[in-house]
């Protein structure tokens, strides 16, 4: 169950953004609950009370929190569309030699962040009683996909659907197509190389055996039992290679999957609410979730 409130956050597009705690296997997990605003438009009002959304931010497994735009602004937008949203402040992976980086605790690696996500999904499901929609961005997409497999045979009952934005799902980045490589621009042309992305994955995994664990990196492993899935990738993004491959793997596993590449976007477009890609991504998520 979700514990008592730690306070409220002002939110224009939600009645309240309430901070709370979920008890997990590694200790308390801060969460924030957003409820649809009073006076929601009739179309959205009819949806209030449908499956809540658990939303998991990205940040290369080592950074991010409940106030990150990719966390807070996405939750506000989804609450404004009529959904209750719970965001997750999962434990961050520690970077070797940079113990003061972010809020990570030394020694935190897989499976701790996945365990946190699973604990929140189960707590929300216990309250909702009618299924949960789970979503994640970038590293949060990887954690969310791993949580689906960790839930195992309970996943179909606990999850109405899952959605992923510009996620990485494979321990080793699949080969990027010539078209993807040709579209890379700016600093991420150098920071999102296969070499560096694979290094980030190794830091998160914490061990060689974890790199092969399907609950750490579901890509390339059996995906039977996955609920309906939505994947949205950025056009100019190395991680698109993983998203494209994962969408194919879901399809081959006979999972109902919808896949989109947003033209003119770069990685982390949901962290930039002023850009057109943010609004386009939210529209895709809302339209898909309403059809579940």
UniProtKB/TrEMBL annotation:
Domain called Alpha/beta hydrolase fold-3: residue spans: 53-270
Keyword Hydrolase (UniProt): yes
UniProt GO molecular function: hydrolase activity
Pfam families on file: Abhydrolase_3
Keyword Hydrolase found: yes
Keywords: Hydrolase
SUPFAM superfamilies: alpha/beta-Hydrolases
PANTHER family given in the database record: AB HYDROLASE SUPERFAMILY PROTEIN C4A8.06C, ALPHA_BETA HYDROLASE FOLD-3 DOMAIN-CONTAINING PROTEIN-RELATED
Name recorded for this polypeptide: Alpha/beta hydrolase
UniProt source species: Cryobacterium lactosi
């Amino acid at each position: 169950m979700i514990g008592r409130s730690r306070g409220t956050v002002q939110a224009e597009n939600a009645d309240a953004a309430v901070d709370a705690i979920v008890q997990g296997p590694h200790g308390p997990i801060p969460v924030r609950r957003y409820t649809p605003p009073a006076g929601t438009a009739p179309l959205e009002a009819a949806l209030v009370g449908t499956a809540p959304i658990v939303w998991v931010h990205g940040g290369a497994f080592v950074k991010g929190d409940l106030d990150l735009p990719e966390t807070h602004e996405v939750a506000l937008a989804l609450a404004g569309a009529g959904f209750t949203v719970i965001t997750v402040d999962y434990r961050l992976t520690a970077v070797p030699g940079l113990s003061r980086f972010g809020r990570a605790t030394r020694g935190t690696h897989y499976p701790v962040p996945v365990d946190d996500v699973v604990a929140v999904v189960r707590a929300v499901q216990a309250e909702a009683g009618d299924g949960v929609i789970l979503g994640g961005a970038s590293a949060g997409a990887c954690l969310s996909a791993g949580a689906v497999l960790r839930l195992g045979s309970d996943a179909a009952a606990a999850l109405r659907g899952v959605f992923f934005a510009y996620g990485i799902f494979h321990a080793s980045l699949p080969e990027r197509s010539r078209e993807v490589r040709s579209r890379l621009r700016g600093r991420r042309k150098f920071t999102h190389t296969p070499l560096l992305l694979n290094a980030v994955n190794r830091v998160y995994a914490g061990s060689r055996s974890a790199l092969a664990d399907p609950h750490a990196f579901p890509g390339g492993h059996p995906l039977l039992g996955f609920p309906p899935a939505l994947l949205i990738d950025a056009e100019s993004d190395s991680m698109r290679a993983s998203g494209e491959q994962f969408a194919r793997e879901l399809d081959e596993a006979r999972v109902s999957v919808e896949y989109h590449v947003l033209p003119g976007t770069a990685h982390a477009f949901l962290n930039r609410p002023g850009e057109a890609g943010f609004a386009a991504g939210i529209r895709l998520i809302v339209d898909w979730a309403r059809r579940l």
